[in-house]
């Protein structure tokens, strides 16, 4: 912060926004708070862009109360504001609050959810086992014509799989043209936690056969499946 204050040219709004983004990325709360304190002294430094940067910084530093306070103080919110706050709540295991905030977003005017926001909401539904709400989000994506990319597809598979709707998860999974390791992990994880050990191993073998490189999450899912179904030798 001292170096920031000693630069020859007086920092402008863009400088503060960049510094806040950097603070969030490295998780440096002290710097982020220091920048926020300096901004409070100059009303001209407050805008939607700087407000979003503050929310993002506090979320990444896991200071959700501060993030929510800034969010509530924003007179105008855009998709970035809503996405930062909703995704932050999901990441910090506060999925109920994330869904409540999404509901509040729907009742507000001017901002419609995009794929990033809906992916976070689907993750919240998966964490809570809220399949009915998750199904509504799925139907909303289809009816709204939102572009169906790998991230959204994976989130839908993850939601149905974790909620125990394996057949639906498989149907969605098979319809995704461009899969990645996270898509496979979503299906494997659902199979594992619901006791489908043999299916999980078959899925894993198919994944490797097709050239996808497993990661730590993949192996944990397969080992979990083996443990739940007594497949000790396979787990070894």
Explain what you see.
The chain is an all-alpha fold and 236 residues long. The chain has three domains: 1-76, no CATH class; 78-171; 179-236, no CATH class. Helix content is 74%, strand content 0%. The longest helix is centred in the first third of the chain and has 14 residues, at 13-26. The N and C termini lie far apart (52 Å). It comes from Noccaea caerulescens (Alpine penny-cress). InterPro entries: PPR_At4g14850-like_plant, PPR_rpt, TPR-like_helical_dom_sf. Pfam families: PPR, PPR_2. This is Pentatricopeptide repeat-containing protein. GO terms for molecular function: RNA binding.
Q: Output the structural class.
A: mainly alpha
Helix content: over 70%
The run of helices and strands is HHHHHHHHHHHHHHH
Described by strand count, sense and barrel closure, the largest sheet is: none
Rg, rounded, reads: 21 Å
- Overall outline: elongated
Distance between the termini: 52 Å
Q: What's the rounded overall pLDDT mean?
A: 90
Question: β content, as a range?
Answer: under 5%
Number of helices: 15
How many beta strands in the DSSP annotation? 0
Low-confidence blocks of residues: none
Q: What topology does this entry show?
A:
Elements (H helix, E strand, L loop, with lengths): L1 H5 L6 H14 L2 H12 L7 H13 L3 H10 L5 H13 L3 H13 L7 H14 L2 H14 L5 H13 L3 H10 L5 H13 L3 H13 L6 H14 L2 H4 L1
Helix pairs in contact: 2-3, 2-4, 4-5, 4-6, 5-6, 6-7, 6-8, 7-8, 8-9, 8-10, 10-11, 10-12, 11-12, 12-13, 12-14, 13-14
